[in-house]
Amino acid sequence: MHIKEGPKERHTLSVTVSNEPGVLARIAGMFTARGYNIESLTVADITEDDSISRITIVTSGTPAVIEQVAAQLDRMVPVHKVTDLTVLGDHVERELALVKVAGIGDHRIEALRLAEVFRANVVDTTIASFVFEVTGASTKIDRFIELMREIGLVEVARTGVVAMARGKEAV
Amino acid sequence: MAKELSGADILIEALSDLGVEVIFGYPGGAVLPIYDALFKQKRIRHILVRHEQAATHAAEGYARSTGKPGVVLVTSGPGATNAVTGITDALMDSIPMIVITGQVATHLIGSDAFQEADTIGITRHCTKHNYLVKSPETLGHVIHEAFHIATSGRPGPVVVDIPKDVQVATARYTKPGPISHPSYKPQTKGDIKAIETAVEMLAAAERPILYTGGGIINAGPGASQVLRELARITGAPVTSTLMGLGAFPASNDQWLGMLGMHGTYEANWAMNQADLIVCLGARFDDRVTGKLDAFAPKARKIHVDIDRSSINKIVPVDVGIVGDVGRVIEDMVKIWKGRQHRKQDLSGWWKKIEGWRAKKSLAYKSSRDAIMPQDAIRKLWEATHRKAPIITTEVGQHQMWAAQHFDFESPNKWLTSGGLGTMGYGLPAAIGAQLGNPNALVIDIAGEASIQMNIQELGTATQYRLPVKIFILNNEYMGMVRQWQELTYSSRYSESYSDALPDFVKLGEAYGWKGIRIEGMQELEAGIAEMLAYDGPVIVDCVVAKLANCFPMIPSGAAHTDMILGDDTVSGEMSDEAKALV
Ligand SMILES: Cc1ncc(C[n+]2csc(CCOP(=O)(O)OP(=O)(O)O)c2C)c(N)n1
Ligand SMILES: [Mg+2]
User: What domain count does chain A have?
Assistant: First the structure.
């Protein structure tokens, strides 16, 4: 016997939650308990009085699973609102990465040239290394990291995706 | 200004403000301040169980039979971990329950202190919500909020973990007004447009069926009343899940019996052939649907549920209505009447149903000497049904036979562990039900294996003079396990024989109960009568046929139409796919 899986879609969800202890564990644990995927998860509080956090979750699954993910999040006591930005339509997604590259001579010059193409900033430098800060869609960051791998990639730190619907309305 | 109270006293004040009359608990170091506060008051009665798991099931039995939330009090560490099974059980069956756990003092949390367990972490995913209370100032509000969450929306268990120093420290307590939660706002009123659509679909259906569940029980007795009205005006047949038994009277002509794995032939075939299924407070559990891609292939589906995540979770539906099922049915009835819909002519549909009924799928062969378990249940029903008894069960064949052969006429009389299937549920649940209904006849229909899982609670019933009855269908096997082994594993009965059984009569007597053994058909009626005549707790060891199987049965993962009706069709080996299903 073999275990089968269905075709998957990638969705970005925005979830506002009360900023109470354990809320992140509750949400992350729900994903593992029900066998859902988390591709990326970011969280920070967004209100003046620190009472509400916004969590951006990138998940993947069949359309039925994605509907369940949203419904399961929505029924949790500290969750205020769940918005599936992918379903909502047009939205912007951004991610920030710090990328450390080591090398000398031509490698350095090539790294700087590529950084310029990707509008990455140099936020630290030594004689033999750079740390670049690059923002953009996840695919752009993937590409940048891939190119740097050939030049002398040392390490990467990524924030995960934050996202927002286009237009004047709030979620 | 109100004077300052200790956290323990605040807890007592809040609980009595919330109308709590009884709590089920077990003391320990981390709850001593609360036990001292309990000692000094008279408003709340504490029932001392013999194991914390039993406290949770007793609270469930109390809740399910009275409609009020059940309250549990246990100590930190092992007290809390022992409660986890019952908490999970309450989550699966949507039972309102508040569990107060003691915790080590706040400055010790995280230090691996004596009897420290991460109760909040452990119970996070088996509760509807949980709280760690860090100061006595917030305690009163948290308790009120916990009750609000446990009892509203889809009910469930809420854990409140209270460190020992918070029980001792003082603060002021004032009774809060109605709870308005910033994010938790369950939807109780269904969308009226969707309800109108549902009514039109029902009016146009040629082969409708009402598929009801435990949600109707949770929605209160009023929901059962409006369900009867909906059935009356539409003329549609009614079936129910294990959890919903009693919402619709078994004596009604429109009743098809339970559906699902051990449901009746007519209920499952009607689901399979219906053109419209109206699911009311049920959740398309795998025990109900069987093989999903063969489930109700011809039916459009309407699903009413208070929990949005239940809709489209297992079975995609045509109309989903989020709301309290009682209120939604009430709206349906109003709209139906307002639009002057008449009963459709369902005679063709009923004729088909009569054909399926004629199979008499619950029939069994009685025997002259060995008691057939079904006969035992039937006789028990005959002897008691006029008293409208509360029946609890353990888990196994006896549970399914009770569901099939004990007929219920009203809600809150049938208490069983459906979602989690917890052996050991029945006796403590009976104790809780008896406390909530002192004058009722309460019977735990048990198996000889299950009853041993919380047998220590015999002592609790004795202590509080609770006249509960235990009726063991003793087949000397974990019968349900043995049945599956017969079906799936060529009768290799691996570890399913109940060896070294105690003498249940003597065991009962040792705890101060009356014990009765029933060994043959000729003793059955007299034994039951003796049990009922005794004013006190009775344990009946009813020796039944050892190898009887529970039919009908849809093997897990099979279609409703592939029902096994009797012994002649079973035994053998199943495919790996079938073996992989629970
Ligand atoms: C706590 C727990 N452990 C194991 C099981 C698996 N299980 C389901 S039914 C059953 C056998 C029950 O035997 P008994 O109580 O004698 O009932 P019978 O089926 O014979 O009527 C077992 C072991 C369970 N449901 N719950
Ligand atoms: Mg047995």
Answer: 2
